[in-house]
């Protein structure tokens, strides 16, 4: 059973975000880039399926500038077999639809049973690309998967919803978006890192995939202005030496001043 | 601008987040809007939607829509779209909404403004503010070249307002074709004890490493119950296995915007602040006066959570009993 794992290469979650000079994108200076954490769960599940079946391949796919190759290389080091990089050099922003179109065009013709995404790409935080890819690729999808049981030609996925799980039976091939809790991603071993250097990364050019949204005038969602959130007011500290009085004072402030309880 | 609002119900109960989206659409359009309501036995629920701004409710009421399926529920949205040719579609950014919106958008060759926290109309365009980098920044967006404009609205941010003068909505039944899904929901398993989810809660009480171990939860739970809140947790305690991931608030957990957020023994790592920084009022209780959580808190108590929280809970109960 073959898997395709689509990854986003994003600013580290510890990164302090600064607004760039154009006022509508982030300042990329000093940003450390990582494979989006939810994508790691997708990769891990794909590797586990390959190991359990003792057959099949795991291909990783990313669209982005040159640095995206570093992300792909990391996934190869963890055990993926090969990679596809869609070179988007010079395209500073691609909306979710354009991203899904680029990935679907690059994946076209591949025989994949499982197509993995993270339940969201941290940063843009949209949770759009995975299901959009499924629509464009003509396959079903199950979002926010926290458990997967693989059967013959179909799988049973547990999907996280508000305060409950949906148990979903799904035919293959299909798109799955991975949620935290699905598994514990492995680290790359030294051997894996060495082996990754020899694994192939196929290259495709975004400009040759016919993605209209790569042209900013054709984007279906665009960023107009980026801002840091407004600063919050300074904290009002309540003395703690008498816990009972502190408790009462908190309640008084929440009732009379903030009017929230 | 013609709006269509996707209405979510589970087990015959309309989600508050959908009423918020409906109310917002009415406000932006200046009059009644269209709504689509898929499910089983849902026709009776249509009347209620009039009060929140629905002029017409397109109902897809079928046995095979009893449980959610992407194919069936997006199919209903497709059918309603054909009937009323909307300029804009609003969907609450719940688990279901996040499943419906991207598929529907791609089918219409457009994208979507996801998880918006502010929405306005400029001429014939929708303009939104949405959080990015888990709330570490926010971005003003529009739908660019898209003819059909789609936004998903973050729950708990917009008001669900009743218009007492509103009339009964017109109810139209949708005819759907084959909606047998390739991804079929077999059953819904309620986890733990049907707990209120942090993403839907008005009030959240969260515990961090300061609770010292899973045996510290009863103290936090006591305050949670006194406030009628949902239980949240920091990444540290989830990773330590003290509680299930569904409670995690932060960049790799849930991003929340409650009216009141009470952080108990949470230092406030940047990832956590990203997940709850848009809360209206934040209370922080922590023994370390240098903890970053105090930088975002509205009210702070520098002290031992095991001494302060029981007294806080007691005072809440006393106040509520008045």
Spatial gap, N to C terminus of chain B: 47 Å
Number of helices of chain B: 9
Strand order of the largest sheet of chain B: 7-11-6-1-4-5-12
Largest sheet of chain B: 7 strands, parallel
What oligomerization state is this entry in? heterodimer
Based on Cα principal axes, name the global outline of chain A.
Answer: globular
Poorly predicted sequence stretches spanning 5 or more consecutive residues of chain A: none
Distance between the termini of chain A: 54 Å
Give the chain pair forming the largest contact, with residue counts: A-B, 89 and 102 residues
Structural class of chain B: alpha/beta
Radius of gyration of chain B: 21 Å
Query: Averaging pLDDT over every residue of chain B, what do you get?
Result: 95
Number of distinct beta strands of chain B: 18
Q: How many individual β-strands of chain A? A: 13
* Sheet/helix structural class of chain A: alpha/beta
Helix-strand sequence of chain A: EEEHEHEHEHEEEEHEEEH
Radius of gyration of CA atoms of chain A, rounded to a whole number: 22 Å
How is the main sheet of chain A built? 9 strands, mixed
Lateral arrangement of strands in the main beta sheet of chain A: 9-8-7-10-6-1-4-5-11
Tell me about this structure.
- The complex is a heterodimer of chains A (261) and B (322).
- Chain A has 261 residues and is an alpha/beta fold.
- Helix content of chain A is 27%, strand content 28%.
- Chain A has six helices and 13 strands.
- Chain A has helices at residues 37-53, 68-78, 96-107, 129-137, 190-196, 243-257; strands at 3-6, 9-11, 33-35, 58-64, 82-87, 114-118, 141-150, 154-161, 164-171, 174-178, 201-205, 222-227, 236-238.
- A nine-stranded mixed β-sheet of chain A has the order 9-8-7-10-6-1-4-5-11, sandwiched between helices. Chain A has a two-stranded antiparallel ribbon with strand order 2-3.
- In chain A, helix 2 crosses helix 5.
- In chain A, 50% of the residues are buried.
- The mean pLDDT of chain A is 96.
- Helix content of chain B is 28%, strand content 29%.
- In chain B, helix 3 (70-84) packs across helix 4 (95-107) and helix 5 (217-227) packs parallel to helix 9.
- Chain B is elongated, with a radius of gyration of 21 Å.
- A seven-stranded parallel β-sheet of chain B has the order 7-11-6-1-4-5-12, sandwiched between helices. A five-stranded parallel β-sheet of chain B has the order 15-14-16-17-18.
- Chain B has 322 residues and is of the alpha/beta class.
- Chain B is built from nine helices and 18 strands.
- The model of chain B has no long low-confidence stretch (mean pLDDT 95).
- Classes of the chains: A alpha/beta (261), B alpha/beta (322).
- At the A-B interface, helix 3, helix 4, strand 7, strand 8 and strand 9 of A face helix 4, strand 7, strand 9, strand 10 and strand 13 of B.
- Strand 9 (164-171) of chain A pairs antiparallel with strand 13 of chain B, so a sheet runs across the interface.
